[in-house]
User: What shape does this take?
Amino acid sequence: MNSERTLVLVKPDGVRRGLVGEVIARIESKGYAVVALRMLQADRALLERHYEEHLGKPFFEPLVEFMMSGPIVALVAEGNRVIEGFRSLAGVTDPTVAAPGTIRGDLARDQGTKVLQNLVHGSDSVESANREIEIFFSGQLIGESK
Ligand code: DAT
Ligand code: MG
Assistant: This one.
């Protein structure tokens, strides 16, 4: 088995709109397992680590402010090719053009803000997933399953 893990965040817009269950349902309906879950209020230090690749970009500060604007839900999903699979479930970054059928395509749209509000985050590689899971769940993960 080549089971893989990814970090998913339901961003403050998703929590505010009551879409936590919808996101989890799509992950579970696809057949992935949720193996860790927490709700938290992210602070600047945590978000600067999580989004370090975007430091210096014009949307960086709006992104950090947005991500601090309310509670978020962090979870770890597991399954073969789950990193690619969750990115596919989420749809592309810009919700205006994200395909219908995806989380962003069905449930989000451009709000005219400096940062795109697109409901969810999903890790984009094994390296990112390991790094991001460590940021949100350091030492809290139940041992490898399957
Ligand atoms: P993704 O979340 O699809 O991996 P990303 O890592 O490139 O996208 O960017 C992180 C978040 O920043 C993204 O979910 C929404 C916001 N963002 C990205 N590019 C943007 C842009 N050009 N203008 C406004 N917000 C942007
Ligand atoms: Mg990204």
Summary: The chain has a mean pLDDT of 96. Residues 124 surround magnesium ion (ligand 2) (CB under 6 Å). The chain is about 40% helix and 20% strand. The first helix runs from residue 12 to 16.
